[in-house]
C-alpha cells in the first residue's frame, strides 16, 4: 500500500512539474501581417500587430530604423516621406523572446503625365532674387513677372546676383530617361563673342507627397562641378542700403564688395524679400569667366550643364535652350544619386561678378520645358 501511495505521489508530482514547465515556457507568438517585404504609399496607413496567447504576458517593442516607436501589441505605420524602412517587433518575458522584421519600401509619389499635360512650367512656387540692376522692375524683377513663366518661354525674369533664385514645377513628374530631360530658356548672347550669365539647376522630388518643394535638393552637376576653381558651400550676405545706392555684400571666403547701383533710380535690393535688412544665399560658386575683348565685356560660357549660357557643348545655337539630364544629380556631399523622376526645379545665379558698366552678372530665365512632351497640349 505504501509503495502504491508513493508511486501515485510521484506521478502527481511529475504531472504538475511538467505542467508548470509547460506554463513557464515562452509562448508562441505570431504576426498578423506575415509578409516580410511590403510596399506602403506615402501618407497611407498600415496596421501591424502581434497575436499573444490568452493569459500570457509579453513585453512588446517596435523599432523603426532602430528607433523605438511603440510598446503595445500593435503599431500603426504611416510614412510621411518616401524611403526604405526597417520595422522590427520584439516580444519578450523572463522565459525568452521573439523577433520579427519587416522591410518596407515607400516609393516616391509620381504624377504621370496625361493627355492634357503641358510641356511648360505650370507653377512658380518662389521667386527670391539677389540684389541687381533689374530687381524691382515690373517687367524683369517682380513677383508678377515671375508668374509669367507659367505656360510660356517668352517672358524674361532676372535672378539678380549670386544666389538669387526661382523655384517652379510642372503639372506632372518629369521622368529621367535616356538623354536630356529638361530644357531651360535664358538670354545669353552669341555665337560671336558668346557670353553667358551662368545659372545652376537643382532638382527635387516630392518625397512627402504634399505638392510643395520642401524636400531635399540635388544639384545637376555641370562641366565645372569637380574643378578646383569651383567653390562648394559658398555663402554671401547682402545688406539693404534702403536707398538708391550700392548694395554691400560679404561672403564666407573673407571677401567684401557691392552690387553697383549705376542708374541711381531705385533700390536694387529686392523690396519684396521677407527680410528687409539682410539676405543670405548659399550654393556652389562658379569661377569668373569675364573678360574684355574688342572693346566688349563678355562672360565666356562653360562647356555644358548651366542655364543662360551660349555653350557650344550644349548646342545652344541650334536649340535655343540649355539641356539638362536628371542623371547628373548629386547630393550635398557630391555623391551621385539615382532619381527616376523629379517634381521641382530651382535655378539660381552661380557667379559673383561685377561686369563694370554692364552691372552685375545675373542669370535670366524665360521658361522651361519637359523635353519628353513634344507639344503643348
Question: Which short descriptors sum up this protein?
Answer:
377 residues, 6-stranded antiparallel β-sheet, 5-stranded mixed β-sheet, Immunoglobulin-like, 8% helix, 2 domains, 25 strands, single chain, mainly beta
Quick rundown:
This protein has 3 helices and 25 strands. With 377 residues, it is mainly β.
Question: What does this molecule look like?
Answer:
- By secondary structure, the protein is mostly beta strands.
- The protein folds into 2 domains: 27-106, Immunoglobulins (Immunoglobulin-like), CATH 2.60.40; 123-370, no CATH class.
- It is built from 3 helices and 25 strands.
- The chain has helices at residues 2-24, 143-147, 316-319; strands at 30-31, 37-39, 46-51, 59-64, 67-70, 74-77, 83-93, 96-106, 123-128, 157-158, 165-175, 182-185, 199-204, 217-220, 231-239, 247-251, 256-259, 278-285, 290-293, 296-299, 322-324, 329-330, 341-349, 364-365, 367-370.
- A 6-stranded antiparallel beta sheet has the order 9-11-23-13-14-22. A 5-stranded mixed beta sheet has the order 2-8-7-4-5, with no helix packed on it.
- A hairpin with a 4-residue loop joins strand 16 (247-251) and strand 17 (256-259).
- The longest helix is centred in the first third of the chain and has 23 residues, at 2-24.
- The termini are far apart.
- Mean pLDDT is 93; it is low at 9-21.
Amino acid at each position: 500500500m505504501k509503495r502504491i501511495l508513493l508511486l501515485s505521489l510521484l506521478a502527481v508530482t511529475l504531472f504538475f512539474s511538467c505542467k508548470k514547465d509547460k506554463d513557464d515556457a515562452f509562448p508562441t507568438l505570431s504576426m498578423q501581417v506575415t509578409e516580410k517585404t511590403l510596399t506602403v504609399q506615402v501618407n497611407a496607413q498600415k496596421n501591424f500587430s502581434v497575436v499573444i496567447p490568452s493569459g500570457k504576458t509579453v513585453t512588446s517593442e517596435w523599432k523603426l530604423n532602430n528607433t523605438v516607436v511603440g510598446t503595445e501589441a500593435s503599431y500603426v505605420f504611416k510614412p510621411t516621406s518616401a524611403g526604405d524602412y526597417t520595422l522590427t517587433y520584439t516580444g519578450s518575458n523572463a522565459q525568452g523572446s521573439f523577433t520579427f522584421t519587416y522591410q518596407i519600401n515607400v516609393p516616391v509619389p509620381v504624377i504621370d503625365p496625361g493627355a492634357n499635360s503641358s510641356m511648360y512650367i505650370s507653377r512658380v512656387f518662389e521667386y527670391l532674387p539677389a540684389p541687381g540692376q533689374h530687381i524691382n522692375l515690373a517687367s524683369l524683377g517682380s513677383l508678377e513677372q515671375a508668374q509669367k513663366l507659367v505656360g510660356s518661354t517668352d517672358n524674361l525674369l532676372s535672378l539678380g546676383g549670386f544666389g538669387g533664385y526661382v523655384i517652379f514645377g510642372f503639372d506632372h513628374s518629369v521622368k529621367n530617361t535616356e538623354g536630356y530631360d529638361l530644357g531651360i530658356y535664358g538670354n545669353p548672347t552669341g555665337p560671336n563673342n558668346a557670353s553667358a550669365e551662368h545659372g545652376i539647376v537643382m532638382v527635387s522630388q516630392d518625397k512627402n507627397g504634399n505638392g510643395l518643394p520642401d524636400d531635399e535638393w540635388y544639384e545637376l552637376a555641370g562641366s565645372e562641378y569637380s574643378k578646383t576653381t569651383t567653390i562648394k558651400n559658398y555663402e554671401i550676405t547682402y545688406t539693404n542700403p534702403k536707398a538708391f545706392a550700392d548694395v554691400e555684400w560679404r561672403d564666407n571666403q573673407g571677401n567684401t564688395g557691392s552690387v553697383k547701383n549705376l542708374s541711381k533710380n531705385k533700390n536694387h535690393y529686392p523690396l519684396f524679400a521677407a527680410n528687409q535688412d539682410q539676405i543670405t544665399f548659399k550654393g556652389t560658386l562658379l569661377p569668373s569667366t569675364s573678360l574684355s575683348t574688342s572693346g566688349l565685356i563678355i562672360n565666356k560660357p562653360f562647356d555644358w550643364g548651366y542655364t543662360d549660357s551660349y555653350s557650344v557643348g550644349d548646342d545652344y545655337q541650334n536649340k535655343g535652350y540649355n539641356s539638362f539630364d536628371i542623371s547628373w544629380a548629386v547630393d550635398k556631399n557630391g555623391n551621385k544619386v539615382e532619381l527616376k523622376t523629379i517634381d521641382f526645379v530651382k535655378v539660381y545665379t552661380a557667379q559673383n561678378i561685377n561686369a563694370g558698366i554692364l552691372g552685375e552678372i545675373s542669370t535670366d530665365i524665360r521658361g522651361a520645358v519637359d523635353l519628353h512632351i513634344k507639344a503643348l497640349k
